[in-house]
Design a protein that fits this description.
The protein has 9 helices and 7 strands. With 254 residues, it is α/β, with parallel strands linked by helices. The longest helix is centred in the C-terminal third of the chain and has 23 residues, at 231-253.
Length: 254
């Protein structure tokens, strides 16, 4: 799109085809391609074509915002030198790694991006529509998943971890309770967020409520996801959590 400040990489595998870039370049006058064909290994092919990797592509298009849909080809990790992927609706945005992630700003910026309206589970499980619908529903939780994953980083200060876990908890809770039907793994993710929130022991946290929520949603997940290889561990954790909840209630009534 002429004058556009952003572009989208849908399937970078397409850039390996000889005919693709010349065709695309006609419609993307503001996007620069540093060669004739994408390849993780840069160089010149026997036929004279020049190959380029994603890092080089991003570096010469710094003036534009770049978004990735349907993932980045795993065979080319060169972009990781200076870029990170941040959730953007059903896609991701490639952001320079030296930019500090601000969860409050990002939540506000991306909150209204999602507009998928198909009900969860409405298509036959074996249909391609079901696969697409599942992918779009899972995209709803990309932001809390990303924030929770950041909070799990061992090298973060305690106050930053607490801030991230709290945001993840609030976002997951909003998702789980705003939908009548949703992917089963949402129960597991929300339960984990409740458990982390519980361990923060903040002033505004209700230990009994958080323990109850953790137990309830781990239980719902274990009921529905019987093929999860971690199911036995989850059931074991449930026994411990129920014991912890009984102990907490006994102390309150003593």
């Amino acid at each position: 799109m002429p004058g556009s400040k952003h572009h989208i990489l849908r399937q970078n595998k397409m850039m390996t085809y000889e005919w693709y870039l010349p065709k695309m370049a006609e419609h993307l006058p503001g996007v620069r391609f540093p060669g004739n064909r994408w390849n993780p290994v840069e160089g010149m092919l026997p036929n004279g074509m020049v190959t380029f990797n994603l890092y080089h592509f991003l570096e010469i298009n710094k003036q534009k915002e770049t978004f990735v849909c349907i993932g980045i080809h795993e065979g080319d990790p060169t972009w990781k030198k200076k870029y990170s992927l941040w959730p953007w609706g059903s896609c991701d945005k490639l952001v320079p790694s030296d930019i500090v992630f601000n969860p409050e700003e990002w939540i506000k910026l991306t909150r209204n991006l999602y507009n998928w309206t198909e009900e969860y589970g409405r298509f036959a499980a074996s249909s391609w529509e079901s696969v697409a619908n599942e992918e779009m529903w899972q995209a709803r939780m990309k932001t809390p998943f990303f924030i929770f994953d950041l909070a799990e980083s061992a090298n973060l200060p305690a106050d930053v971890k607490a801030r991230l876990y709290t945001h993840a908890y609030n976002l997951y809770k909003e998702l789980v309770y705003s939908q009548k039907a949703h992917p089963v793994n949402w129960h597991k993710n929300y339960a984990l967020a409740c458990e982390r929130r519980l361990r923060l022991a903040g002033r505004d946290a209700d230990p009994e409520a958080l323990l109850s929520e953790t137990i309830r949603h781990f239980h719902l997940y274990a009921q529905k996801a019987r093929d999860d290889p971690q199911r036995a561990d989850i059931l074991g954790a449930l026994k411990h959590l129920r014991k912890e909840l009984r102990s907490l209630r006994n102390r309150k009534t003593a």
